[in-house]
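Researcher: Here's my situation. A collaborator sent me these components and asked whether they could plausibly form a single complex. I don't have experimental data yet, so a predicted model of the whole assembly would be a useful starting point for our discussion.
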Amino acid sequence: MQEIEIANLRKLTEVVKATYNYDFTNYAMSSFKRRISRVLDLFNFQSVDALIAKVESDPKFFETFVQEITVNVTEMFRDPSFWRLLREDIVPNLLLNHSSINIWHAGCSSGEEVYSMCMLLNEMGILDKSKIIATDLDKGILEKARSGRYKLKNMELHEKNYIRFQGTHSIKDYYTIKGDEIQMNPELVRNVSWREHDLVNGPVFNKFDLVLCRNVMIYFNQNLQNEVLKKIHESMFKYGYLAIGSKESLIWCEIANKFIVVNNEEKIYKKIKE
Amino acid sequence: MKKYDLSDKYKAIVIGGSAGSFQGVVKILSNIPENFKLPIIMCLHRLKHVRNGFVEALSIKSVKPVHEPFDKESIKRGRVYLAPANYHLHIELGHTFALSTDRLENNSRPAIDITLETAAYVYKEKLIGILLSGANRDGAKGMKRIKDRGGMTIIQDPSTCMIDTMPTAAKNLTEIDYSLDVDEIINFLKQLDSQYK
């Protein structure tokens, strides 16, 4: 893996911004750089300049590039204790005051958490009381999420997580095997609307009772985390819940005081101020 | 007692370890000076799905508390850090941590190469990398990066490792400054600490 100069990364982000209006300027430098290195290796670019030229001149390649740069690797029921808390505490609390709940998966990537959520809601018998919007910046990954096809070999891990989540079914009830892939039952996501949306530059488009944005903001620097949190805050009803990754924290964000910690271990926050 | 080429230029220590490294890590942490001045950043292979218990197990005998950093947390002098389960631990310019859930590297998350390479980038010649016992090749590229950037490289003497694949892989890839057993590593750290007034 080649070492990349920061100046070259800046050149790249400027060209991307000018050409496609995607802004990677405030991405966390170390992981961004690593992903660029990977792109260089994967597509045999000799230099960042060569990559810049290709990105600038080839919109089709740019889509692939975005996918490599923004893909968020996740699992179904990552952190099973988090999902148990949702089922046993957070969702029941929402149901006390709501006849239906609005859920946003912000930065849903390949959709594993969306399917996890739908399994959870299904097993609580409230799937049809739920409206779920799943968004991502990357068209390609959103298409993959919508298709509900995953590698069979990954299901072992997902199943282990599901068992630790103590689901009431077998995870196998939710998919069929097709060769080395599985097809999630499309009925499961009947109340999910998949949308292209840019968390950084996109508009506030709705209000939600529960927002999942787990291990997405870790790819941003602190400035951008601040900005994105403001948008998420605006997209939430008062007393709505926000879930972030177990090793993320809001405490250094400017508007941290508009939230209280509901569960520090699982990093669930509640909006208490507009 | 061995003498080492030391100075007070170093700003951080990174330790990588895998299978067979736990005892060594515990011994090191329980024998470093109480007010050891440099930050120690550890990336140890661990069960992906078990979030709790490991840091506690390490802390029991450690002279300092072991802490799993949050994303964007600042690196502070004298603290001991451990890469959290199922995250890669990166070091950022400005001496903060950044986490990622990127794909496994060397079949691992956290991957030692990521912590070592990003630390080498930030600390350059002011970094000491220590690679302990382990059964795969994770960390070798990271050690090479540390050496290439002018830092110091130490491996656990392969003949004293429960499984020597990891330090041997590093030795085969790059120049290693010292090959030491765990007691010698402790002694090294004590001598290093005495450089700082």
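Model: Some features of this prediction you could bring to your collaborator: Chain B has one domain: 15-193. The mean pLDDT of chain B is 96.
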